[in-house]
Request: fold
Amino acid sequence: MTSGATPLSAAARPGTGDTWQRFTLAEKLARFSVYIAIVAAVGWAAHSVEIIVEFIWDAPEQIADMGRRMWPIPWGFYPRGIHAALIETLNIAAVSTLLGVLMAVPVGFLAARNATPNRLINTIARFILVSTRSINTLLWALFFVAVFGPGALAGTLAIAFHSIGFIGKLFSEAVEDAHRGSIEALSAVGAPKLALIQYAYWPQVKPSFWSIALFRWDINVRESAVLGLVGAGGIGMALDTAINLFQWDRVALILATIFGVVIVAEMLVTEIRKRII
Amino acid sequence: MSASTARPFHTTPLARLGWLALALYLLWAMSSLDFNLARFIIGLDNGAKFIARMFPPNFERWDLLVKGLTESLQMAFLASFLGTLISLPLGLLAARNLLPRVITWPVRIVIIGCRSFHPVIVAIICVKAVGFGALAGIIALTVASVGFVGKLFTEAIEEISMKQIEAVRATGASFMNVVIFGVMPQVMFRFIGFAAYETDANLRNSTMVGIVGAGGIGGTLFAAFQRFDYDYVFAIVLSIIALIMVGEVLQIWLKKVFRQ
Amino acid sequence: MLSIKHLVQQYVPGKPVLRDISLDIEGADITAIIGPSGTGKSTLIRCINRLVEPTSGAILFEGRDMVKLSGSELRQARSRIGMVFQEYNLVERLSVMENLLTGCLGKTPAWKALLRKFEPEDIRGAWEMLEVVGLTGFANARADSLSGGQRQRVGISRAVMQHPALLLADEPTSSLDPKTSVEIMELLTRVATSKNIPVIINMHDVELAKRFANRIIGMAGGTVVYDGPPSGLDDDILKQIYGGESWLH
Reply:
């Protein structure tokens, strides 16, 4: 009889008679210590966070007040004040995804251990990926606004650069997952690196690539909506103005618009996913 | 699904049209965004000056930096913990293969709602509701976490093998027991992965919500920016990157411990 | 103790899979249901514990109509019926022991299930069962690390752990090689006879059915065309059930 598992010896039996244990003592200790660590961390975090109790009591009243000010939603304001900004937001999302993808793919390749054997380049590429991801879109936006001035250019570059880390990481994982077979076959006949990429790697990573690009576009639609808060274009600027002027009803309108756009984007992505993947 | 749509990138005339439309759209979008070569070149020069002012990074006011980072860390932790805790039952209730539409529909809408808005936007609203400070940030990040982890968790549950569930049901187990013995074993590993990823995301987001006053190092960063203290800004950015790298290493180690 | 009356089942209205089935099970017989694919054998078995919803008819089990039960009553009835599946349907990531203890979930409160705190007599019963099926050393092995035959032994153990009044088996050997199939059938029938539990088994292997069962029910086109001992299964009847001559010899 063939079997995948081997039976334990009598001495190693996890229990007899009416007892049974799923985990060995060592395993139990390890799991337990992780639980304790998590509880301790949360306890420490909760303890040190400053919570001003009066604000919490006040919260329902504040929320109710905000709710009152948000109603009725001034739909009429949309064409004049919002539509153009919304289109700009969507354009930023699209172009920045394109830019991000263009920049991320080579870095992703360089970070993949199977495509680029040079460990030093790997590490540098990975470092680029981690750092671009660690710097938030808003932070990138601050930087680019200072450099290029306020507007959509700054916003597009900000999202593009931030996306490098995200797209690059997922992409390099996809490359590392590629089957060795065709890659080895082609390099055995002496194919140059570029041909290797085109004929061995690319066909395998293509579905993941589009999936990642789609995923990132979906996120970028959300990101581009807030860029305006720091002056980098898009609907965020209208939002920032409305908040500063305490025009909460217009804020509600903008939020509703964003919500609608996000839902449509999600449905689009789901549909495209079904057909392509 | 017809054969032509089942094969990826099969170039039917419709697909070709789609690609063409996409390309045209991108071109139009780029032109409408008012990219201007002159501006770009001036910007590059600006950028060079800028970067020069960032070096060397200035760590003099490191106590403020550490305080801000610690607060961000705490916010990220709490938000991840609470978010994960809430996502577990919520994600379960949204699973269409386990529960009827009456229950899954409203829950799915809640999860989508949590996910629709950028954490910064949610933070703005939270600041209005509970005032400035870390609490607003924690609530905002928790909401974002629930939206993200909840969705992934529901998707994971909807992909499980119903055969195993069928067998557990056949023994007369209650719904909760079916979940504990049939669903959880199949998805727990993935759930932990989502939680770990979300903790990392929260760590990054927590450095940002401070810009709107919701606590954490974002506020310090924003203030330094506005004061043109670019070398201090650079110091903060480096610290953030370091923190996140530590987080990533921890994540990998944790996954090893919990490998089931 | 099991009485099926005028059972009709249709997945698609107008195309009934089961047409007016009536059967009685008394005593601790080993009953095999044979018939071509698609004739409703699996549907019939699954209607008994309502994994599939009957369209009309009554299924009286221990005096109560399964069709009319719901909620905790249905669960209670189900815990009295053990089921073995063609593809074992074990919870792959759980250990063998946990899969056995799944059989006790019907009476275990959720918090105990979560903490894996089962009654001592259940655990004792589990160890005994593991001895019977020869898997004692595999208690903590993950279910998906076992071979097909081993998995089905776990599946049978799980069903027996329920202390059921009736055992159902839906093509328990169809995914196994001939030698293992015989081993599994021997185990199943041996366990059932020793505990005096009636078994209803779906099978497509007629020889196996004739060898192990003492009552054969032949189905064709959604109705029962033969109900009697294996000895009464002559070629004419088999033709009636399966149609065609060539496969017989």
